[in-house]
Amino acid sequence: MTSMQYRQTDGRMQRSERTRAQIVEAHVELLREGVLRPTAAVIAERAGVSRRTLWSNFHDMEGLLTSTVDHWFRLDDELRGEIDPEAPLDERIAAFCAERERRLVNIAPAARAAVLSEPDFDALRRSREGHIHRVRTDLERVFARELAGEDEPGLLVDAMTVAVSWNAWSLMFDDHGYPAAHCRRLMERALRALLHVG
Predict the structure, then answer these.
(1) What residue segments make up the domains of the chain, in order of their start?
(2) Residues 37, 113: contact at Cβ < 8 Å?
(3) For residues 61 and 68, what is the distance between their CA atoms, to the nearest angstrom?
């Protein structure tokens, strides 16, 4: 391949990546606006591309959802912090729940959309499994000291996972209409009870 051919190929790849990112961003914007099942035509229009361009980049809805899920995971990564597992338990609970609030508020539009479409798409099922795995891993790391003293640590992890899950958050935030700060306090109270604090 000549240098000119390489530059042309590289330029086409960069344009394709930009177009793909533009389409994913359009999809994310629509979800954030509450359009939970946008059609390909609506996504393409928001992205400023044709449906043909959308499908030439993603082939099918599963492909687009996979890229959108990856985008949400990257956003979630940016909101994850390091909580010192040796810090006092009260501090760890407060820090964990504050971080969990930020992450749940961020993921809420995608989670609401996934509830509607998960039965039809593997990408959404894998996303849910991935987020559950993340929260369990985070709980095991942050509260390792307390889990080490449990006769049934897996049972405690299960209970804490329920307390800080999207499902519990959605029940309080969406169904009951509580503000995020109140939902975080409920989460803190649940963890404190499970970890026998005060």
Answers:
(1) 3-59, 68-194
(2) yes
(3) 10
For the stretch 127-163, pLDDT in tens is 999 999 999 999 999 999 999 999 999 999 999 999 9
DSSP the chain: --HHHHHHHHHHHHHHHHHHHHHHHHHHHHHHTT--S--HHHHHHHHTS-HHHHHHHHSSHHHHHHHHHHHHHHHHHHH-----TTS-HHHHHHHHHHHHHHHHHHHHHHHHHHHHHGGG-HHHHHHHHHHHHHHHHHHHHHTHHHHHT-SSHHHHHHHHHHHTSHHHHHIIIIIS---HHHHHHHHHHHHHHHTT--
Residues 6+ apart with CB under 8 A from 150: 156
Q: How far apart are CA 183 and CA 172, in angstroms?
A: 6
CA atoms within 13 A on the CB side of 177: 0
Question: What is the pTM for the complete model shown?
Answer: 0.86
CATH number for the segment(s) 3-59: 1.10.10
